[in-house]
Amino acid sequence: MSKLVLTNSINMLKAVAISNYSSQYQDPIVLKKGETVHLGQEESEEKWKGWIWAENETHGGWVPIQILKIDQSKLTAQVLEDYSAKELDVEKGDTITVSQQLNGWLWSKSNKSNDVGWVPEENIQYL
Q1: Residue range 44-49: average pLDDT?
Q2: Under DSSP, is residue 37 helix (H, G, I), strand (E, B) or coil?
């Protein structure tokens, strides 16, 4: 992986897609701070550790464990911050601006379309 270079004072990073990525979920889960979710299985694949399946009243999706306060039963959790599981479609060569890295995924903005969403870190290279 290339050295990370900060592009401005708010720690935004520039990157380029080294392979195509298409969203796996067309209607992703969106959570609000304080919401209660029902928990499913934790991701077991090593490169995706830190994610857990969660469901609210209308949707299910992968959620980072770091934003959850899991109850003692481990069946439900309180959401600690707003979260969207929206993924960002990228094509090889697209440039993006990365604002957050979490468990192998990057919250990014497409410099081509201005869309935002998560991209797998393995699909990009930092500039």
Answers
A1: 90
A2: strand
